[in-house]
Amino acid sequence: MLNFSTLLPPGHQILAANEYESVLVVLSYLIASAAGYTALAMADWVTNSRSRRGSELAKLIGAIALGGGIWSMHFLAMLSFKIGIHVHYAPWQTLASLLIAIAVSYTVMHLIGRESLTAPQYLLAALAAGLGIATMHYTGMLAMQSVAVQLYDPLLVVVSVMIASLASLGALLLAFRLRGRTGIRTFWLRLLGSLALGFAIVSMHFTGMAALTLAVPIGFEPDGLAEVNQHLELGMGIALGTLFIIMVGLLAAWAGERFHAQRLRLERVSTTLDQITLHDPLTHLLNGGSFIQTVDRAIGQARTGEQFALLMLDIDHFKRINDSLGHALGDELLIQMAQRIRAVLDNDLPLARYAGDEFSLLLPLGQRGDSQPLAMRLLEQLRPPFELAGQRIAMTFSLGIAHYPQDGANAGQLLRSAGLAVGHCKRSGRNRSQRFTTELQRDADDLLSLEMDLRHALSQGGLHVAYQPIVDPAGAPVALEALVRWQHPVLGPLSPERFVRVAEETGLIADLDGWVMRQACADLAQLHREGHAALRVSVNCSALNLSDRLLPQAIARTLQAEDLPASALILEVTENALMHSLNVAVEVLNEIRTLGVRVSIDDFGSGYSSLAYLSRLPVDSLKVDRAFVRTIPKQSNDMAIAAAIIAMAHKLGLNVVAEGVETVEQRQFLQANDCNFMQGYLFGRPMPLPHLRTWLQQSAIASVPA
Ligand code: C2E
Ligand code: CA
Ligand code: CA
Fold it and tell me: Does the record bear Zinc in its keywords (predicted)?
């Protein structure tokens, strides 16, 4: 201990004072502990805050609670010092000490908010905080003005700074340890920690006070009541105010914690939701929507020059599996497929069941990669038969490939390009892979503009029907084939083969065929009224319309509207079409025949003709494909086939129409083989109704016996 008597200013004596107002001492300790608790709780909020603003707010509230707490603890402790002197506190210095306390606390809160601290950083931070608290303490002491002169023992001052630093170090360590933890254990740890912290702060203060010796002028008489009236009230006031601040801080910390817990719960829920909304429940692969997002993200993060391949894999004739084996086995096939595809890929490649029976995946190609090897491996992997309910079923696939950036700048465009490539595979016989090309795009564009023009023509009366006579062996007309015509405003007359395909690919075919049928029936009714009462009309029907169960009703309505007997109408359906759509088509055709409408198989012999199959089809007649007629009499093979078809059809009780008869030799050959009816340029080309009328009159004159 320093001997202050040597340092005494002249005319001064040492004031013996070591009494404290115990209520204020206890209060100051409680406040210091409460402030410590708030700061520790606030530390959690600082680290949990994801927004900058949130963490700044938490730091500020924490700093005010902690700084205000330490400061008022210190102030209260000073007030509790019973020295019997009238004391005046210089306002600016008092305020400065408060601001210092808050600033130091803010720094501490800021440090706690960091990821981690190294050991030297801990020590430095603790030392800085200790020095800060000490500065606050001694600034506050200097604010105290009275007759007394303050003398300090430097050793004890140093000890007080060390205690403050150690307390800060303890607080920092504790704060880092308890960060991000919840639960009752953490609560107790935090409480114990803050009580210890409070004790450390108070110890620091009283060590600082012990360093102080007051010197008063010789002969000064202490006033025993000096503190009692002024200090106790003031002290209580400050204590209450500070407690209020601390309470607010605690409440804020509690709310912050609740908010954080709530957010964690929400995040868990949203992860589960993500799992559900981002994945296909059947195969657990990504679904279409999330695949698009994933691809766009990958492209967005790609380095310059980096390329990708988007592969789209489509099962050929998947509908047949569903139709014949049922949807459960269809699903099973999809699951097995997903597993096989996964097995070929690196695990983290985005793979999706994009839609129905369509799988998509994204392959990074680096700077100049090739997608072909993977495409081959995929098709190879899918080649062995699949085991479905004990049956081994081999499937084929169509694979479309689009490269980024050449074939599309984003997921949407790449998918469209790959889809066009898949479409091309399907049209050219399936079971193949195809890279996107600009021709495919041009075809698609043409298709789109043709579709729009066709739509327009359908609604604005731009289509016409031409009629080609079908004659009996004597050359007398028995029926007319209705053939649609379209004079395109820019492209001129278009072949029906071309725009019928457009209508089939764009879903317009039902409207188109419906329109032709209504027009043909109206024209036929008119011809009947003009005296050609025995004529029938033969109308082409796209196979796609045969899956429409409402077709029979629509036909019945059309006939009724024109007051035509059902026997006046023949429906021409291509054979290939019947092979594909099976059950539903057969049902629909049966219903149509029940009405009394006849059904004819068009282009017979051009597809996979199956006699056994033919016998089961609900048809009345067949039209031998033009190809067999054209080569008569040059190709003896074709002639033999034509003759055989006619003979076989007769055995099955069907009538036979030969199409494309252009020469007299052809006519004679067909007559010799008992062909029932003929159609071709030899008799008449397809012609508009007015021409047909003239033709009918001329043929009537020609057939009148001389
Ligand atoms: P298709 O049903 O086989 O029609 C017969 C086609 O052969 C017609 O061609 C006709 O002009 C042509 N043709 C008739 N006689 C001869 C001949 O002696 N020699 C040659 N070389 N050709 C002859 P078009 O009118 O171009 O029709 C082509 C195809 O378009 C039709 O083939 C049919 O599949 C389809 N089509 C026509 N109109 C319609 C329709 O209203 N609906 C549907 N779905 N398809 C139609
Ligand atoms: Ca036809
Ligand atoms: Ca035909």
Answer: no
